[in-house]
Amino acid sequence: MPELPEVETVRRTLNSLITGKTVRSVTVRLPRILQKPDDPAAFAAMLEGRTFLGAERRGKFLRLVLDGLVLVSHLRMEGRYGLYRDEEPVETHTHVIFHFTDGTALRYKDVRQFGTMHLFAPGEEFLSPPLKKLGLEPLDDAFTPDAFRKALGKRTTKIKPLLLNQEVIVGLGNIYVDEALHLAGIHPERTADTLSGPEKSRLYEAIRATLQSAVEAGGSSVKSYVNGQGEMGMFQHQLRAYGRTGEPCDRCASPIVKFTVGGRGTHVCLRCQKPPKGASQAATANAASAAAASAGPRRKRANAVKLRLDGEGAGGGERPAN
Ligand SMILES: [Zn+2]
Question: Which of 12, 149, 264, 308 is labelled catalytic?
Fold first, then answer.
């Protein structure tokens, strides 16, 4: 599923594609995408005649700002937007179409149908679900080392599920949590209350650095997001731990091992990320087998791991975290 960097790239692309466009009409082909209002006619009537002023983001949610209205959109597993000429044939899995007065149309496609859309009066979106309870925004100026330390508090939760909790910090999913913990040298099964001051600082820096470089990678290849059909999708980004099971850690060359933490596939270098006492048996067993495997010829590291916004790179059938 898309995480903060992917959603941020979609946001930037949408911002350049639809800002200034006025909605002539709206076609709803799959009403279940609409959450508020859930009636297609009411949804369309609220949008018609309004102009998009820009695309913003809160966590993994897009905030598409119109004059007098805000559309909150979550892509979930496979949602994607594309800008088309209105007369182009409508492809399957196209669920909502915003027809513009200039003859173009923004189309929302979603094979898995998990995506959501809410309409709010400006400002009200922050007072109700789904944005109300969201935690720290990691790329905002308000995300300081101090704010992060406070958010972690003395919690006895394992650090990985804690970072995945959108009420603590937003935008991090399975991929970038593994990446940030590897960069910070912290084992995902450490509990927050056992992290030292310097470890918390390292983790703070690692979260910022990981997300920023991913956003820059996405931002710099933003054109490749829009294919001939104006559809955004592919994302290429270099990963250190996620999806690299059995490949050498780029810091110490130990093999990356994979095990499960809180039900999520987790990628770790056990030399750089020292396990706490009582770490899961699976971690130890997996480490041993990975070490044995690494005694053989090492696989050459792939230059880039392809991630797709539809979540194929994000662990297959896992359910969205929010
Ligand atoms: Zn390592």
Answer: 264
Token pair, residue 138, equals: 């990691």
The two structure tokens encoding residue 117: 């859309």
Average pLDDT of span 129-144? 94
Same domain? For 119 and 152 the reply is: no
In angstroms, the CA 177 to CA 175 distance is 6
Is 2 catalytic? The answer is yes
Q: Identify whether residues 214 and 104 lie together within a single domain.
A: no
Q: How far is the CA of 192 from the centre of ligand 1 (A)?
A: 21
- Residue 312 counted as domain residue: no
Q: Is residue 64 assigned to a domain?
A: yes
251 belongs to an annotated ligand binding site:
no
Neighbours of 43 (CB within 10 A): 23
- 79 and 204 in a single domain? The answer is no
Q: What pLDDT does 292 receive?
A: 53
Q: Using an 8 Å Cβ cutoff, are 171 and 7 in contact?
A: yes
CATH number of the domain within which 203 lies: 1.10.8.50
Residue 269 Cα, ligand 1 centroid: separation in angstroms? 5
Question: 274 C-alpha to center of ligand 1: Å?
Answer: 10
Q: Check 21, 57, 60, 63 and give the catalytic one.
A: 60
Q: Which residues contact 292 (CB under 8 A, 6 or more apart)?
A: none
| Structural domain boundaries enclosing 188 | 145-220+239-303
129 is catalytic: no
147-173 mean pLDDT: 94
Q: Quick check: is 17 in a domain?
A: yes
* pLDDT given for residue 228 in this prediction: 37
259-271 tens-digit pLDDT:
999 999 999 999 9
Q: With respect to residue 98, please indicate whether it lies within any of the assigned structural domains.
A: yes
- Its pTM stands at 0.78
Q: pLDDT category, 300, cuts 50, 70, 90? A: very low
User: Is pLDDT at 318 greater than 70 in this prediction?
Assistant: no
Residue where one domain finishes, among candidates 61, 96, 126: 126
How many CB atoms sit inside 10 A of residue 281's CB? 9
